[in-house]
Write a structure and sequence with these properties.
mainly alpha; 7 helices; 2 strands; 57% helix; 6% strand; binds zinc ion
Length: 178
């Protein structure tokens, strides 16, 4: 059953992936990659067309982007950097971390649920839920944390339009202040 692969085949697999990406981005010719027309056509035909995003999916991406910018601007105004370790960071070095995961739409764009932190701390907190929870209790206060958890358990329908309007307005305010 066990197939032994030679390193050459391994590289070939990686190349295939890379070649496909280069074809998708129209860069295969630019880089003058060595392949026959036949190989090119074969690779091209094996690339699955990307599924078009629905309007709802597009809206969610827009909301995530706005939310992330708000949270990072907020972190800069609060501590000029990472809200967890306090180290100075630029907006590009900050990420938007979720305490209750993104899968929960009741709290995905809830500003209490989010922190502007650097990639290192982001990974640490995601890997250590207990530490994350203890930090959240300190960061937003245990009462707010309790309320956040309650909101996450809501059974109400999530009104994306309403949340998006709120995010838009908040972002405009944060950009003016920044
Ligand atoms: Zn940090």
């Amino acid at each position: 059953m066990r197939k032994t692969k030679t390193p050459r085949q391994k590289i070939r697999v990686n190349n295939r992936w890379l070649l496909k990406r280069l074809i998708v981005f129209g860069a295969a010719n630019t880089y003058g990659l060595k392949m026959t027309d036949e190989e090119y056509e074969l690779l091209k035909s094996s690339i699955k067309p990307r599924k078009k995003k629905t309007d709802r999916q597009k809206q969610i991406v827009r909301m995530d982007d706005m939310c992330s910018e708000i949270i990072r601007l907020r972190a800069l105004s609060r501590v000029s950097g990472c809200e967890y370790c306090g180290k100075p960071k630029t907006i590009k070095q900050l990420q938007c971390s979720h305490f209750i995961g993104r899968g929960n739409f009741h709290t995905r764009w809830d500003l209490d649920n989010l922190g502007g932190i650097d990639s290192h701390c982001h990974m640490d907190l995601d890997e250590n839920p207990e530490i994350h929870e203890a930090w959240m209790a300190k960061h937003i206060g245990s009462k707010s944390l309790d309320n956040l958890v309650t909101r996450s358990r809501s059974t109400d329908k999530v009104d994306l339009d309403k949340i998006e309007a709120f995010l838009k307005e908040s972002l405009e305010r944060w950009r003016l202040e920044g």
